[in-house]
UniProtKB/TrEMBL annotation:
Name listed for the protein in its UniProt record: Mannose-1-phosphate guanylyltransferase/mannose-6-phosphate isomerase
Keyword set includes Disulfide bond: no
Nucleotidyl transferase domain ranges (all copies): 12-293
Highest classification ranks of the organism: Bacteria, Pseudomonadati, Pseudomonadota, Alphaproteobacteria, Hyphomicrobiales
UniProt cross-references to Pfam families, sorted A to Z: ManC_GMP_beta-helix, NTP_transferase
Keywords noted in UniProt: Isomerase, Nucleotidyltransferase, Transferase
């Protein structure tokens, strides 16, 4: 064991990217599924952080990108980290897991003497986290000796959406040798893999020393490692965050499986059954959530009559469903989804079409949550739009300019707020209003120790006030 204390803390690396298009309209480009409260009172990202916050774990590192950095900060608010506030590593361009993990390992080697790293996605559900933590602890000795531990999930069904890992019959402690990786199989092959008893699902969770993964990338993915090293040399560092330099964008977008795992001779796998699910579709959400006597999953203010085996979720309105079975119905402030449960994977086609057409519903919810406050569009029309703004106690919130607006009228509902733009400033109290004669970006500074709220009305020029009805489209 090279004389190393086996009780050293394991440093979690939480991968916090992705888009989650199969869970639209809950998941959006800037607010993907890891930030949604899908199976409890906390987001999947928050649950992941808590899962790896016990005595065995050290200060976490969070890998994210520019699109999601502020949303990460929202979910970190109010969380307690005994091992220290997370180090956030921000990618300037979206790449796959190999460049991200290389960046995390290099950052950790700057801070610690060759720590053990546990890599985990932030958007999975684990119903029995204690079993997973026990498996991690059981694999520590193997990682300390220079091995790479994979955590395989004992299959509960023949799944075609996951890759599989074949374990050898021998083992070192809890760790079996990895004999082979199996790409996502067809259903008949998946049944054979499950019946074989030697195969587990590839969960995307790994554990190794920082020096181990760097050495393996030197051998198997040197160009990726070189780009990441250059990005770290030019990184910006402030407020606990490391913002990687633009060289990161030159790294090949390759997964850690393809770059290293499928080529390495250091692998071992620990099969574990922690009630894990990647929650990759509404079918998965229906399967893993609490069901009523009619096998329905119901969330929010929902009324059902003659409905069975369905997933029905209401946001701010009453949702009523009559005489349907095996359906998905999801209502949010700005969108409604109705789909067959059997085709819930195809929801991604809707999300992709919205992205192609530049529709706002592809990117954000009507409620835009930030660390310092929030903004919600409450009405739109040919006159312009109305948004309700909330600013946290003592916080400052910036909102973008509105290039089409002729003027904006601001009314303070609660609190005392200093408002600034490039051409002026004003201090307003509850009940006071101000007509801002331009479309410049605005800054709202809350002067109190309680949340402040405002209404911002943006008015279009009369010459451009027309109502446009979108054409009906089908997705094929």
């Amino acid at each position: 064991m090279h004389g190393v204390n086996k009780n050293i803390p394991i440093r979690p690396v939480i991968l916090c990217g992705g888009s989650g298009t199969r869970l639209w309209p809950l998941s959006r480009r800037f607010e993907p599924k890891q930030f949604q409260k899908l199976v409890g009172d906390r987001s999947l990202f928050q649950e992941t952080l808590e899962r790896f916050s016990g005595a065995s774990f050290g200060r976490p590192v969070i890998l994210t990108n520019r699109d999601h950095e502020e949303r990460v900060q929202v979910d970190l608010e109010g969380l307690d980290f005994g091992a220290g506030s997370p180090r956030i590593v921000v990618e300037p361009a979206i790449r796959s897991t190999a460049p991200a993990i290389a960046a995390a390992a290099l950052v950790m080697l700057e801070e610690d003497a060759d720590p053990v790293i546990l890599v985990a996605p932030s958007d999975h559900s684990v119903g029995k986290p204690g079993l997973l933590v026990s498996a991690v602890e059981a694999g520590l000795a193997f990682a300390l000796d220079g091995g790479i531990v994979l955590f395989g999930i004992t299959p509960t069904a023949p799944e075609t959406g996951f890759g599989y890992i074949r374990s050898g019959s021998t083992r070192i402690g809890a760790v079996h040798p990895v004999e082979a990786f199996v790409e996502k199989p067809d259903i008949e092959h998946a049944r054979a893999l499950v019946e074989d008893g030697r195969h587990s699902w590839n969960s995307g969770m790994f554990m190794f020393r920082a020096s181990t993964i760097v050495a393996e990338m030197e051998i198997h993915a040197p160009a990726v490692l070189a780009a990441v090293r250059e990005a770290l040399l030019t990184a910006g560092r402030e407020n606990g965050a490391v913002r990687l330099g633009e060289a990161f964008a030159r790294a090949e977008s390759v997964s850690i499986d393809n770059a290293v795992m499928e080529k390495s001779s250091r692998l071992g796998v620990i099969p574990v059954a922690p009630a894990w699910d990647d929650l990759g579709s509404f079918e998965a959400l229906w399967r893993t959530s609490v069901q009523d006597r009619d096998e329905n999953v119901v969330m929010g203010e929902v009324m059902l009559a003659g409905v069975r085996r369905s997933y029905v979720r209401a946001g701010r309105r009453v949702v009523a469903v009559v005489g349907l079975s095996n359906v998905v119905v999801v209502e949010t402030e700005d969108a409604v989804l109705v789909a067959s449960r059997a085709l819930s994977q195809d929801v991604k086609l809707i999300a992709q079409r919205l992205t192609t057409e530049g529709h706002a519903a592809a990117d954000r919810h009507a409620l835009d949550v930030r660390a310092c406050g929030s903004s919600r569009v409450v009405d739109t029309g040919d006159y312009g739009s109305v948004a309700r703004i909330s600013v946290g106690a003592g916080r400052v919130l910036d909102i973008a300019g509105d290039g089409e607006a002729e003027a904006r009228h601001i009314l303070v509902l609660e609190g005392n707020v200093a408002i600034r733009s490039g051409t002026g400033k004003a201090v307003l109290s509850a009940g006071q209003s101000f007509a801002w004669p331009n479309a410049e970006p605005l800054t709202f500074a809350n002067l109190d120790d309680a949340e402040a709220s405002l209404l911002v009305c943006s008015f279009l020029p009369r010459t451009s006030r027309e109502i446009h009805y979108p054409a009906r489209r089908n997705v094929s």
